[in-house]
Design a protein that fits this description.
2 domains; Nuclear Transport Factor 2, Chain: A; rod-shaped; 407 residues; two-stranded antiparallel sheet; alpha+beta; single chain
């Protein structure tokens, strides 16, 4: 419908010219039915939600928003009912494209497009799927998406960008390109998805609903028999208001109660969506830390285990090359000593002797396997030891001490 004609119809509704509603019905029935069917599937559920949405729109004729397109206004009225149906009935079998095998085979590359689209849709949250469909199937502006979802201004732009980025990643993998790639490459793929779509508008239902609405307008008989699932229980109510000139009274107390229930459910869904959005933002922001933490933890555990396995009895002294000792004079080894033995002798024998005596020379002589003779020339004494090695290290087996002749 031309925008100018649409505005005239809306202005007429606000003045009480209810016949204008039929023009809007004819123009936007197909759009609304497809909007609903894409989310709940074709059939009775889609028809029921479509019917209640048009009756709701007629009931709020004088409150119709003049700031958004009428199709967006209809989507905003249908959205809470769609959300409630999905929560009560579970996600529909077709979360992605509604099509048929014949069309998939006839469409060039249809099998590949369908398979990738189904996998992608299956990994999206309900809000992410809703944003994607509104942008690329209903083809409405960011402001229209904001109106349908009921989010604040300034929030919807970042939400849409994150959804496009996530969908692009699910379809094509990570990209180093800027934002343009998400609207370019992605919009091309989704255009092919739309080409596969095959939603059949039920003409008998459309004509029947139009006749019902037309009769209500002519008779001023706004009695409404509403059967709607709310909170898992069916509610049925009937109340009449004949002869009223105010179309806002079409939906009486029974419908008001339903709308209150729907609003509560919508708020719950919005809170859940905001929580998922916050979690997604947290993961995006700290992804590097989340990935690095298990690696760092593994390194710490591995190092600690290695620390317990390696012989660190000399942990108070930094590791040095050679055979470190605290002795100021050179320690002389005579005989066949392995490197490890020299280090253990210096640690258990040389360091202790040099710590007790002011040594001039210190000679370590191999006597036998695991047995050594240690000659110590101290300032006032000549010392001779015999050490043997056991599981506790080197211990003294024999000892002799003689004074130096030069005192």
């Amino acid at each position: 419908m031309d925008i100018y004609v649409e505005k005239q119809c809306v202005e007429g509704l606000k003045k009480g010219e209810l016949r204008q509603f039929l023009l809007l019905f004819d123009a936007y029935f197909d759009n609304l039915y497809k909007y609903v069917a894409r989310r709940v599937g074709e059939g009775a559920a889609a028809e029921n939600i479509t019917r209640l949405t048009f009756l709701d729109a007629l009931g709020q004729a004088r409150n119709t928003s003049p700031d958004v397109g009428y199709a967006v206004w209809l989507y905003s009225l249908a959205h809470p009912r769609v959300t409630e149906h999905i929560e009560n009935e579970g996600f529909p079998d077709k979360q992605g494209i509604i099509t048929n095998d014949k069309k998939i085979k006839q469409y060039g590359g249809g099998e590949e497009v369908f398979e990738k689209a189904e996998k992608m849709f299956g990994k999206l949250s309900m809000e992410e799927r809703e944003i994607l469909r509104l942008k690329f199937f209903e083809e409405i502006s960011d402001g229209g998406v904001m109106e349908v979802l009921g989010v604040e201004e300034g929030v919807i732009g970042p939400k849409i960008y994150r959804v496009l980025k996530r969908v692009h990643f699910l379809l094509f993998g990570e990209s180093d390109s800027g934002q343009g790639v998400y609207f370019g490459e992605l919009s091309g793929f989704l255009a092919r998805m739309r080409g596969l779509e095959d939603i059949k508008v039920p003409e008998p239902f459309k004509l029947g609903l139009r006749a019902d609405i037309s009769g209500r307008i002519d008779r001023r008989d706004f009695a409404v028999d509403v059967k709607e699932v709310s909170g898992g229980k069916k509610k049925t109510s009937k109340k009449a208001s004949k002869g009223s000139d105010d179309p806002a009274k079409i939906f009486v107390e029974a419908v008001r109660e339903l709308k209150e229930d729907e609003e509560k459910e919508r708020m719950k869904d919005q809170r859940r969506a905001e929580w998922r959005e916050s979690l997604f933002d947290f993961v995006e922001r700290w992804r590097g830390v989340i990935v690095a933490f298990p690696i760092l933890l593994f390194v710490v555990i591995f190092t600690w285990g290695l620390y317990g396995v390696v012989d660190l009895r000399g942990k108070d002294r930094p590791i040095e090359r050679g055979y470190p000792t605290i002795c100021k004079n050179e320690v002389v080894f005579s005989g066949d000593f392995a490197d490890g033995e020299k280090r253990s002798v210096n640690r258990d024998v040389s360091d202790k002797l040099c710590g007790h005596f002011e040594t001039e020379t210190l000679e370590i002589i191999r006597i036998a396997d695991k047995e050594i003779n240690v000659l110590v020339d101290a300032k006032e004494w000549f010392l001779e030891y015999v050490f043997v090695e056991d599981s506790q290290g080197w211990r003294v087996k024999a000892y002799e001490k003689n004074p130096r002749s030069n005192g």
